[in-house]
Design goal:
The structure is a homotrimer of 261-residue chains.
Chain A lengths: L1 E10 L10 E11 L5 E11 L5 E12 L37 H4 L13 E3 L4 E2 L2 H10 L22 H11 L1 H4 L5 E9 L8 E13 L5 E12 L18 E12 L1
Antiparallel strand pairs in A: 1-4, 1-7, 2-3, 3-4, 5-8, 6-8, 7-10, 8-9, 9-10
């Protein structure tokens, strides 16, 4: 029924054409909601390639319907999940070496040393969404949820845009200012805070939350908050005075990326 | 001017990337229409790969303009075409073996033995069509008929959606209920019974028309009617009381598919 | 700020999948505009493959903002550029041989000898543009100019269609009448004479400007004017009585192509 959150997502190595990916999930938590009709399920998922090597692992919690409303509530188990992947838990892909990084070819001179914790970056550009594009992107990921494809699924007749499309769009827009923050290392947390629809113009801004060195040659890590908004928000405020997300915020994503030093 | 029907379409083997396909057609029938301005032409077509091996063969009839209206009518030749490809005429691709079929990976447990002749399956999901998507799909097949691309081609300013797109969409929707009815063996008949346009929401239902065993290990064949509708028709009625197709029916396709037993 | 023109564009060899293309540009001319705020820059660009071999070279001039409005105007240098690539300067790709050209497979019988200088060809077909398609095509070329993607970039809320999409569409439409004028040899000049938007229906017509023999077996060259229009212009007039382009003209492109004799 709803995607509630992500945590402890770590990328072990980049995926390349020809990889076949298989994912398995283990239930690690359960809690019935007060209505008695729905509940929250926590799972930990692992994606492996065709050799069985881990590519990616993550935890996620979702709201689902209860199969039998009259069944007794299961014991509540809420897993402890880290607020963020610890620096020591980041997996640096084997062979990653940024000592010869070509900043001219990359198109931007900014390197790990240039970013300061607390700094905010307005990515400036915006893209207006269309139904044809978000549906095709969503099919690429084999997400067939009807709310993304069928105008009858919502009372307003609009097709809800898959959150993964908003993440991808925001990440692409962040190139303007974060061109060299390239391989994603981990996703610490993420919230889809408002729905997006065709006709919305997506902008993005980022905040540097943390930075650390790594053992790989020339490689630093940046912890970044990536915020997608509908319409440009040059104030780069995430929350209103009442503590809620401002209405234009679509996505609040917290991740680690590797960046040449 | 119009695509009137298909018959005796048999798939000899699956097509793979790198195959180059070439098709030749032989005229097997001719009949002038009573207007004297148009007529029906029957052709039998054969698609071969770059080694000359047959991939696919089919018969088809179309309405075309008469080149010289004043020319005498040709002798009428109406070919005898089978109502359906006979079970013994189905070509099982070399090496097809479903004895180790992985039903868990396929996502649905239903197997050949589970389907009954006369059973109808509501595929439930619907997809709302867009102009950008149907035009791109139509270009993939190198169909350049202007009615699909040019808003000036019809008086209502709408782009007619290529029938092949409706077939593909209905077949994809039928995964929900027929996930394991995978390789298409033959197309017995097909009618595009109403035009489709951007904004229409396509749904599909199927009827099991026949089933038979094959000599291949673990492989059964299902003869299926695949019906695409604009808007969902949970009554799964194909024809109204006057014997005509109900207005929401877009496609009535009769085919054979192989299914693990 | 604006793309003003192209000249002396020569294709050295066809590009194939797996080529990695790198382009470098040299400034060959400069002229400050009378406003003092903008100027014209002429560049000569060379695209090379990953072995360093030249694929393509061209000259181009663009209007740009002056970085420092108070700086003295640079010396004016206006390069001499050819009105058209001379026949002797065309580069015939190594191995190009049209002596065994298969006109039946190509779909049209017209050959180099059939075209006459001064002849105009109405390409007949039209395609109505959509926002989703032009944005995806523009991303393919990694053109991220916001005016193509963001409805806020223009006061009328429309997304301007990238000129490269109009060139590609017109070239594709010209297949109907010029199917065998295949490899592009050179672009002599080109003007984007009016903006295009989603909903416009693009048509094309061509004029044979020149023709010449080449040293390659069976290969002639045609110099063609390719004109894209919004709405069909069967009169195939490029300019109105006042010498300006007629309002429906979107593109006026002058190029050389090789054609079997």
């Amino acid at each position: 029924m709803a995607n509630l959150g992500y945590a402890e997502c770590r990328f072990h190595r980049p995926v390349v054409p020809g990889d076949t990916i298989r994912t398995s999930s283990e239930v690690i938590g359960l809690k019935q909601n007060s209505s008695g009709k729905t509940g929250v399920v926590w799972v930990r998922s692992t994606a492996r390639d065709h050799h069985g090597e881990v590519l990616l692992e993550w935890a996620r919690w979702v709201m689902v319907n209860k199969r039998d409303v009259d069944a007794p509530a299961p014991d509540t188990v809420v897993p402890e999940l880290a607020d963020a992947v610890a620096v020591d838990d980041l997996v640096v892909p084997a062979g990653l070496d940024f000592t010869g990084y070509d900043f001219a070819a990359a198109g931007e001179p900014h390197r790990w040393d240039d970013y300061e914790v607390g700094e905010k970056i307005d990515h400036v550009d915006g893209v207006t969404l269309t139904d044809a594009e978000h549906m095709m992107a969503t099919r690429l990921w084999q997400n067939t949820a009807k709310v993304h494809f069928n105008t009858s699924a919502r009372v307003d007749g609009r097709r809800l845009i898959y959150g993964g499309h908003v993440i991808s769009m925001a990440r692409a827009l962040s190139f303007n200012g974060l061109a060299n923050a390239q391989p994603i290392a981990a996703i610490n947390a993420g919230s889809h805070t408002a729905p997006a629809f065709a006709g919305d113009t997506v902008y993005a801004w980022s905040e540097v939350l943390d930075k650390c060195e790594t053992a790989a040659p020339g490689v630093g890590a940046l912890r970044l908050r990536l915020v997608a908004t509908s319409g440009r928000d040059t104030t780069m405020t995430l929350r209103a005075s009442d503590g809620k997300y401002t209405p234009e915020v679509l996505l609040d994503l917290d991740y680690w990326a590797y960046c040449p030093r």
